[in-house]
Specification:
Structural class of chain B: mainly alpha
Order of helices and strands of chain B: HHHHHHHHH
Number of strands of chain A: 0
Number of helices of chain A: 7
Shape of chain B: globular
Number of helices of chain B: 9
Helix content of chain A: over 70%
Largest sheet of chain B: none
Helix content of chain B: over 70%
Oligomer: heterodimer
Strand content of chain A: under 5%
Distance between the termini of chain B: 26 Å
Order of helices and strands of chain A: HHHHHHH
Largest interface: A-B, 30 and 34 residues
Largest sheet of chain A: none
Shape of chain A: globular
Radius of gyration of chain B: 18 Å
Number of strands of chain B: 0
Distance between the termini of chain A: 21 Å
């Protein structure tokens, strides 16, 4: 990597990032308003139901983030470009955070909706396994070795991990259907039965959190780039001191 | 094509097996481990209790996976110790055949362990195997399921072999990935051994295991090259 000494402008966030960041602030405020004040209170579950907006939005973003990991892992394997590896890594980390949000908000909601914290229902089990898999992915990324090698290993794991997701989902679905029909998942997927106000809020929250994901991804990339720059500077200084 | 791929694979598998035959290190560790699993289970659940029979399918797979991880961990460790891995990589063979050979050797190890420990489990838990038909199904389920586990495990064992803490890392990476095989294996074994469901359900679980085997064996075949490269 060639770095000019005092020109750090390539490390500064781009204009697009600043615009998105500024845009995300009012969007988060508006979605909070929509969720807590504007949207109607659910008749049966009451205010607890409002956690559902964040839950669904985080879930969608977690899956999206892991999809990005898969795509950029493939791209890295083919092209060997470092930026692709960085994108996959940052996306994996954000995905784990979103999955953690899903796995904490889910039980809170389930407690009042189904009167239990957790059931071994396909969607829940898959999400939990997904969480473990991408925590492992982060562990692979933290292996102590040269970055090319680490990136390649992480890419391999990212690919086979994502290939595993549909199989896990299918296997767990079959397993449940053998014992008793899948009833409980109905609550989260009856989009048609939602009140229009709720639907608008849901769509808006999903959009907001997707924007937050994009902003976080960019932020993470800038942090990684700064990190690399600092490391290269350190290496240079060390060389100077030795010679 | 098949010859150039298969022959080095058989040589590598043979090398691993004959090395194991001389030292018997890995196999004895795996056997002792699966024996300990049985002992632990016998303390946890009273073997004379009829209800415990429902746990036998799960125990079979717990033994397979836990002892399998020991074997997988050692499979590339031996290569690392004397830097054999570079020799393997420098040898004029396709990386895919290294994968194939390692898979075969690990598969045989786990099968040997199962061949000893599963009958032992049946005897100690006083479990009556149903009939020859069920026994045949059991053999197919166990060998297919073990193969899927080994196909993923060998790839991941090679992946973590370079890390300093690979013994800890391998189970963490492997267990979430082999979840489908474990679920399908346990369910199919349960149906064969104690279930009231017909063979139709066993076949649908077997299909899942077979699909998993094919997908991950192909993935290992294609991706092993990237795992080995230094």
């Amino acid at each position: 990597m060639t770095v000019k000494n005092h020109d750090l402008s390539h490390l500064a966030p781009s204009k697009l990032h600043n615009v998105l960041l500024l845009l995300s602030i009012p969007m988060v405020i508006i979605s909070l308003y929509l969720v807590f004040i504007w949207s109607p209170v659910e008749r049966v579950m009451g205010p607890v139901q409002k956690i559902f907006y964040f839950h669904v939005a985080s879930a969608w973003n977690a899956f999206f983030a892991f999809f990005i990991v898969f795509i950029f892992s493939l791209l890295y394997i083919v092209t060997k470009k470092r930026s692709f590896d960085l994108i996959a890594g940052v996306s994996g980390e954000i995905g784990v955070v979103f999955t953690a949000i899903v796995l904490t908000t889910g039980p809170i909601w389930a407690r009042s909706a189904w009167n239990t914290w957790w059931t071994w229902e396909p969607r829940l089990t898959t999400t939990l396994i997904l969480f473990f898999m991408y925590v492992a992915y982060i562990m692979v990324r933290n292996l102590d070795m040269a970055w090319q090698k680490r990136a390649r290993l992480a890419a391999v794991f990212g690919i086979i991990g994502f290939a595993n997701v549909p199989i896990v989902y299918m296997s767990i679905r079959w397993w449940e259907s053998n014992l008793h029909p899948v009833v409980v998942s109905e609550g989260t997927e009856t989009g048609g039965g939602l009140d229009p106000g709720m639907l608008v809020t849901l769509i808006f929250t999903v959009m907001t959190l997707t924007l937050v994901y994009i902003v976080l991804l960019q932020k993470g990339l800038y942090v990684e780039k700064l990190n690399l720059y600092v490391q290269s500077m350190k290496a240079k200084k060390r060389e100077k001191m030795i010679s | 094509m098949l010859r150039t791929l298969l022959k080095p694979a058989l040589v590598i598998a043979w090398k691993d097996l004959s090395m194991e035959w001389r030292t018997k290190q890995t196999l004895s560790a795996m056997l002792i481990f699966s024996g300990l699993v049985i002992v632990t289970f016998s303390f946890a659940f009273d073997p004379s209790n009829q209800a415990v029979q429902a746990l036998v399918p799960g125990m079979i797979w717990v033994m397979t996976i836990f002892s399998g991880v020991i074997g997988l961990n050692r499979s590339f460790m031996a290569e690392q110790q004397h830097d054999n891995i570079h020799g393997l990589m420098a040898a004029p063979v396709d990386p895919a055949s290294i994968y194939l050979g390692k898979c075969l050797a690990n598969f045989v190890f786990v099968l040997i362990v199962q061949l000893i420990s599963i009958p032992l489990l049946f005897i100690l838990f006083d479990f009556h195997v149903v009939d020859y038909m069920g026994l045949g199904y059991l053999l197919i389920i166990i060998s297919l399921g073990t193969f899927g586990f080994i196909a993923v495990g060998t790839l991941l064992a090679a992946l973590v072999a370079h890390a300093t803490s690979s013994e800890i890392l391998l189970p963490v990476l492997l267990f979430p990935l082999v979840m489908p095989v474990v679920i399908a294996g346990v369910q199919a074994t349960r149906i064969v051994l104690i279930g009231q469901e017909g063979t139709q359900d066993v076949l649908s679980w077997l299909q899942l295991i077979a699909a998993y085997d094919v997908i991950f064996f192909a993935a290992g075949f294609l991706l092993f090259d990237y795992v080995l490269e230094v």
